[in-house]
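From the shared-data thread, chain only:
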Amino acid sequence: MKVEDFFNQQNIIDLSFFNFSNAITACYYAKDNLEILKVNKNFLSFFPILGNVNNAYFPDVLEQIGLPAKQIEEFIHDINEKGTVLIPEIKISINDEERVYSLLSTRTKNESFTYLNGVQGQFVDRTAEFNLRKERQNLLEEKIRDREIIEEKSRQLESLATRLAKYLSPQIYKSIFENENEGEQKHARKNLTIFLSDIVKFTDLADTMEPERLAAVINSYLSEMSAIAVECGGTIDKFIGDAVLIFFGDPETEGEQEDALKCAEMAIRMMKRVGELNKHWKKLGVVDGLKVRMGISTGFCTVGNFGSDLRLDYTVLGSPVNLAARLQTTAEHNTILIDEYTKDLINSHVNSKYIDDITPTGFARPIPVYRLKDFKSAKHRKRRKSLSHVGDRVEVNVLDSSNIQAAIEELKRIQEKFESDYIEMKVKKKS
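Structure, as tokens:
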């Protein structure tokens, strides 16, 4: 006779089944054939839709709580072949609330009491854990989206900033993006050296050349002159057709003498570069090559932002600007004229020749005019030659200054929208 025959089978099951009544999980015990023998109260409370599950086939219970047929088949196979099955995620709707459970089932073996051999298992409520994990995943995805938005806006801002840089000198570009009050109508009185140049008989040239070739010539010319101006530290005020207005002394200055010397070096290098490129321009249809005139004047000017709330222009005003323009129109082909004040500032470094006294329109008295030749120092001339670039030309599009304003306004719109979207996103996170 077996030991198990001396004991009441049901009592043994009740005593040996881990005292289900106090378990916080939903527990079940089934026969080898998966017929349910016993469940605890949490099992019934967790799954009220099942009703009385005693003597029910456990795979049927799994079907009732919504497991797919394929998963149920895998459960039966694994419990029979492997002896243990873990289903990590089972979603069950209870009272219109979706909860998440894990189901761990394993076969039991007892040599003394054969009727304890069967399958036992428990449903563990992992809703809070899964919600926390889901929230964490959502936060991670949101963080990734935020980063992507920031990167995209940064790319847009960088693209616009790059486009804007084509129209501004490095000094002005830096001033705009580092000065919080760049949009204000601010101006100051400063001692500046003014440079102005134009192409001789450019109107006649424009009338005789095809538009595409003319654009290639003017773009090439202005591109080369701009490159030299930037290298010498000049502030490019504007392009007026073929004319170029550049000044030294704002927004950065190294003193009036150094500003004047830089302007003189720029003008000399520009004149030399025009001579070097005339061979190229002749191939484009400029039969006699380009001839330029340049004027330089130094004195106190008003410089800053001028305009309205809708549009501002960073420029320079004053008598030295008018004088530089008059000197430029007076100059012979391929010559540089300077006023007496500029000559006095750079005389120890640069050779110049007195030309004549002229009384420009708008000036009350005659003004001595000098022709700028070259630097006295062989060392300086050698350095200037080394800086003169003869390589490929950089082509730029010379557009109306309204394009600059349009780019600035577009930049501001993107920045404002980005800031607004970012604030809104943070508010949603907090709520």
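DSSP finds 13 helices and 13 strands in the chain.
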